[in-house]
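User: Hi! I have a protein structure encoded as tokens and I'd like to know what sequence might fold into it. I'm fairly new to this, so please keep things simple.
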């Protein structure tokens, strides 16, 4: 489970580490470093922001004056350059209404089906800067504020929402002796999801046999292969495989279609990340016309053998793939859309929702999509 305040500490620490690495990489040409570009020409009372920030950041671990990031408020470092991360409150986020936070299911190595649930949490956090020098506090504050602005893509990848604003410089009157302690903070509002596995475990189906109908070894009535999506959306597909396997074939919910498996080395209803098998379609003209990504057929129309990595490495437009949002990735659905089909906005939303597609798959942010660990938002 992700804990937002720990993730926030990791992000802040990583950003500062990146600045240190950037300074080291540009030691011969300091004017090329990010810190110099932003603060090299800023002075106050004869003190240069770049020089003082560089010295503070590059101190060795043995020097207590080195800028550190601490969780909660560390009173032992209140007189030293420190960023304390505190979180006064957490509340429910804005997207906790669909299926009580159900996210997805996966089957673990013990053949146990586990459901993943998530709850969106809106938290209020503080980055509190402390020290005994008011100018130094100002420098740390402006440095961190600028770094947060510059890292918008990193923050968007880790959090659903990230907003921040500064508070005024304060002096703690209780700490006047021997030295006054100055405080300034950045208030942060962020929204993220807490994802946990259900306490309920279920055995998965096994010994699946297809012959027009399929059965499982448990005492469950037989049933037909049915479409996992609404009929209007199914009509947009040439092929839609959603977990039905018959020997070396992935059976489609579209009548008369399937995907062939070469050198099959898995026995699950999904394709695990360890699979070395390849996948191919039949030499059918309408499949070639639909495959505008040239995933299943090359530009000359020759059949391609598709690998697991190819299925998840790219967001295709004619082939849609449902796979896990986080590693180890596994593929559970594959669909090939018909050629020249026009999708309504509702159907685009449905594709995002049913296939757990990347939130940017359709070219614009889509609330029905999923955040994928292998698709950083930039």
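Assistant: Happy to help. Inverse folding works backwards from shape to sequence: for each of the 378 positions I chose a residue that suits the local structure. Here it is:
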């Amino acid at each position: 489970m992700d804990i937002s305040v720990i993730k926030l500490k990791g992000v802040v620490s990583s950003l500062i580490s990146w600045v240190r690495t950037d300074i080291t990489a540009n030691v011969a040409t300091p004017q090329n470093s990010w810190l110099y570009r932003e603060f090299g020409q800023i002075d106050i009372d004869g003190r240069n922001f770049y020089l003082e920030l560089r010295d503070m950041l590059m101190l060795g671990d043995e020097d207590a004056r080195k800028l550190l990031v601490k969780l909660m408020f560390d009173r032992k470092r209140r007189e030293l350059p420190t960023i304390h991360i505190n979180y006064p409150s957490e509340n429910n986020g804005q997207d906790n209404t669909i299926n009580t936070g159900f996210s997805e299911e996966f089957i673990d190595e013990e053949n146990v089906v586990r459901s993943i649930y998530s709850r969106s949490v809106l938290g209020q956090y503080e980055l509190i800067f402390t020290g005994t020098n008011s100018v130094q506090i100002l420098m740390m504050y402006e440095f961190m504020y600028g770094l947060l602005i510059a890292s918008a893509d990193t923050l968007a990848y880790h959090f659903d929402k990230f907003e921040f604003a500064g508070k005024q410089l304060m002096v703690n009157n209780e700490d006047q002796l021997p030295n006054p302690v100055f405080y300034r903070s950045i208030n942060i509002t962020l929204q993220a999801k807490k994802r946990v596995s259900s306490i309920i475990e279920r055995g998965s189906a096994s010994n699946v046999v297809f012959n027009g109908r399929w059965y499982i070894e448990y005492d469950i009535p037989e049933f037909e292969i049915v479409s996992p999506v609404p009929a209007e959306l199914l009509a947009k597909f040439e092929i839609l495989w959603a977990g039905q396997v018959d020997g070396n074939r992935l059976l489609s919910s579209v009548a008369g279609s399937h995907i062939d498996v070469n050198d099959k080395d898995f026995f699950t209803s999904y394709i695990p990340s360890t699979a070395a098998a390849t996948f191919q379609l039949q030499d059918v003209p309408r499949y070639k016309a639909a495959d505008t990504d040239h995933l299943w057929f090359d530009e000359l129309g020759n059949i391609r053998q598709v690998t697991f990595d190819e299925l998840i490495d790219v967001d295709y437009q004619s082939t849609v793939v449902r796979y896990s949002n986080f590693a180890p990735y596994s593929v559970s659905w594959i669909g090939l859309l018909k050629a020249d089909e026009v999708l309504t906005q509702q159907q685009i939303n449905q594709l995002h929702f049913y296939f757990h597609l990347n939130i940017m798959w359709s070219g614009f942010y889509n609330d029905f999509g999923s955040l994928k660990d292998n698709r950083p938002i930039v």
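A useful reference point when you look it over: The chain is about 25% helix and 30% strand. Feel free to ask if any position seems puzzling.
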